[in-house]
Q: What sequence folds into this?
């Protein structure tokens, strides 16, 4: 499932549609074009400026327009030199197999690289720029950080400025039109003013007060004060489980810029904890949540936005109002473990994926079938008869060491 | 270097070597002779020779340089229809080389394409019918949309006969100098369910143990191919321990890299595995199969794997409670 932030829904797909910063835009495009003539002015650019002014958006729009595959590594990934080498460096020096015309490497928020925690990350980045055969784009909020000095000297710098209020208003107006929402001038101007040049923030604020409504006015801005106020997921989950009416459970949805996808994960994690002891309640709650999930997937596949309310109601009221509701005890809720597991196992999953592609191409099967129908047998052969196993690995082009790493557990 | 995996080493290279599909082979050879080929749809259970036949056909049509005129794609691996469409188009656009009238595009696991993707493919098939022929491969004809079916000559691959599977295994064992006992063959036949790929892989893994391949060796291998967590998962869910079951589920997805559909399929196989530890009344098996089918469908349509499987576990727990409570 997915949340549907309007910032994603309305993210421009073409360079011409990226709002503001015309100068930086045209410099960026001519730099990118210089790559197509094999004479790049510089190998990397550093786009810098405050958040929400379109740095990343421009890169994606340009990539889309010129048929480039974006290889992305952002602040949420580990950026040790090891991790960088594995993911990005390979991409920088290999050709593309995927039908794109080329690649572009995007490293978001390089000022977030911690010299101490991301061991050697900056060093590797410099090496990457040195050796790259594809365009490299870095972004930063603060490019003048002393640790970026060397990096700065290797890059073409392009400044992004806050978006003009009138441009923000134009974008908000357009979104309102597309969503079929009547909005008066005052409220849009006020949202734009408060955003202080941050277009993303403005769109988020608009979504928080306008989504699912026919019209908005200045009064609706009331509950929306400061964006930095973090809502507390533990509290929200508790409110949902303790609701006694559909109305009460649905009220949660009025929280501005609530992250539905995150909430979905939290509810999934905590159903068995809150309803522990009553398998009937767990089953009913999961029946509702799994149906909400079906609606989410339909929304995603067919852009059926009109289904969103049903999904959200099933996910909240449906989970809260089970027939066999046990007496609710105080429950220590848990952060969604699955997200943690997925990020922890990322490297191993990628390793498996790579191996399965080797097998797939040699054995005329899909990667999924390689994983279930071939890989386990190779594991056994290797275990029982190492020589035979090594022969197979060699034939497949898989190194013994990475194979052992994979089957180790 | 020669193929080290027996499934590849002993994959038939010519149509004549293909076992058990005499009628199909006869028709295909006719096509090769006249050098006129309709679009093809090969359907049938796994491991009955569909891909092998398609590859052999390409070889017979185009000779040793068959790869110049044949494109092999796997629909499960190409994430979006976009990729398929573009690769197929790029490929089909140009003329075949070496004096053959068309190119061959082999699209394996085609039933994993969404119906939208199939609709798009149908147009591509029409547009390039002058330069390219398609050979679609699927487990189920019914999962291929009718307009595509109607454009193809449909060949249904029969489940392999026991004597044919055993004859092939004997041939391989002899060539590899492996001794297999009668009950060893019997066991391989039983656990592979007519899937020759599985049978050959099982034979190779069992022979890696060293010594004679008997039923003990075969069952030792088979017990380890499917992660033991699958069997445990059902047991623990039946016992009503939801949290433990979810933990196993996550282990299967993370440590074994299994997709939701993989897990559903394995549970299904475990359900009807006569050697499984879990003893269930027959009517419960049917009830569970119904649930599995529904969850499988939802996941294919793009639903969240963990949430759907959790919903499944919870229902299994309810069934388990009913069984115990009477």
A:
């Amino acid at each position: 499932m997915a949340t549907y932030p309007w910032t994603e829904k309305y993210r421009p797909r073409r360079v011409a549609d990226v709002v503001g910063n015309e100068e930086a835009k045209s410099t960026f495009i001519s730099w990118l074009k210089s790559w197509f003539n094999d004479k790049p002015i510089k190998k990397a650019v550093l786009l810098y400026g405050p958040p929400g002014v379109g740095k990343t958006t421009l890169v994606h729009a340009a990539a889309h327009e010129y048929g480039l595959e974006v290889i992305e590594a952002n602040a949420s990934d580990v950026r040790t030199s090891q991790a960088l080498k594995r993911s990005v460096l390979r991409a920088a020096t290999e050709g593309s197999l995927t039908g794109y015309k080329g690649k572009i490497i995007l490293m978001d928020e390089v000022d977030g690289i911690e010299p101490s925690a991301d061991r050697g990350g900056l060093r590797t980045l410099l090496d990457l720029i040195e050796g790259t055969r594809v365009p490299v784009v870095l972004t930063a909020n603060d490019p003048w950080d002393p640790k970026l000095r060397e990096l700065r000297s290797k890059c073409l710098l392009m400044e992004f400025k806050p978006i003009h209020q009138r441009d923000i208003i134009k974008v908000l107006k357009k979104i309102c039109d597309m969503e079929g929402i009547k909005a008066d001038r005052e409220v849009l101007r006020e949202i734009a003013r408060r955003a202080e040049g941050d277009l993303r923030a403005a769109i988020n604020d608009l979504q928080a007060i306008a989504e699912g409504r026919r019209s908005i006015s200045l009064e609706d801005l009331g509950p929306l004060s400061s964006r930095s106020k973090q809502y507390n997921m533990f509290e929200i989950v508790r409110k949902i489980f303790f609701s006694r009416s559909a109305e009460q459970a649905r009220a949660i949805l009025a929280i501005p810029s609530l992250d539905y996808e995150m909430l979905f994960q939290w509810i999934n994690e905590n159903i068995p904890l809150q309803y522990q002891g009553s398998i009937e309640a767990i089953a009913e709650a999961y029946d509702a949540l799994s149906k909400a999930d079906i609606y989410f997937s339909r929304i995603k596949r067919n852009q059926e936005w009109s289904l969103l309310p049903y999904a959200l109601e099933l996910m909240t009221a449906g989970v809260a109002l089970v027939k066999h509701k046990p007496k609710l005890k105080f429950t220590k809720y848990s952060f969604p473990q699955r997200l943690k597991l997925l990020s922890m196992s990322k490297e191993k999953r990628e390793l498996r994926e790579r191996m399965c592609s080797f097998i797939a191409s040699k054995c005329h099967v899909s990667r999924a079938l390689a994983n279930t129908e071939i890989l386990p047998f190779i594991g056994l052969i290797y275990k029982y008869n190492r020589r035979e196993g090594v022969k197979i690995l060699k034939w497949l082009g898989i190194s013994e060491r990475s194979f052992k790493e994979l089957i180790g557990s | 270097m020669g193929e080290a995996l027996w499934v590849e080493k002993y994959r038939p290279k010519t149509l004549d070597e293909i076992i058990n599909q005499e009628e199909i082979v006869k028709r295909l050879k006719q096509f090769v002779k006249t050098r006129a080929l309709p679009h093809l749809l090969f359907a049938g259970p796994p491991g009955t020779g569909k891909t092998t036949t398609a590859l052999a056909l390409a070889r017979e049509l185009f000779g040793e340089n068959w790869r110049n005129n044949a494109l092999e794609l796997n629909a499960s691996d190409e994430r979006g229809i976009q990729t398929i469409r573009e690769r197929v188009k790029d490929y089909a656009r140009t003329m075949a080389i070496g004096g053959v009238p068309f190119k061959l595009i082999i699209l394996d696991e085609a039933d994993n394409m969404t119906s939208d993707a199939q609709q798009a493919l149908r147009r591509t098939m029409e547009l390039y019918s002058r330069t390219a022929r398609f050979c679609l491969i699927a487990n189920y004809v019914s999962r291929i949309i009718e307009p595509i079916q109607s454009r193809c000559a449909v060949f249904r691959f029969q489940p392999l006969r026991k004597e044919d599977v055993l004859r092939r295994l004997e041939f391989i064992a002899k060539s590899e100098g492996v001794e297999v006992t009668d009950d060893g063959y019997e066991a391989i036949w039983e656990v592979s369910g007519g899937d020759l790929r599985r049978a050959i892989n099982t034979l190779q893994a069992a022979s890696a143990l060293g010594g004679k391949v008997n039923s003990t060796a075969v069952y030792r291998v088979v017990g380890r191919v499917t992660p033991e967590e699958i069997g445990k998962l059902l047991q623990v869910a039946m016992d009503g321990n939801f949290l433990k079951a979810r933990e196993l589920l996550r282990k299967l997805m993370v440590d074994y890299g299994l997709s939701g559909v993989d897990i559903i399929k394995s549970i299904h196989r475990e359900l009807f595995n006569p050697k499984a530890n879990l003893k269930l009344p027959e009517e419960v098996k049917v009830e569970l199969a119904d649930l599995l089918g529904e969850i499988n469908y939802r996941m294919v349509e793009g639903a969240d794997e963990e949430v759907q499987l959790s919903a499944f576990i919870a229902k299994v727990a309810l069934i388990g409670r009913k069984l115990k409570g009477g």
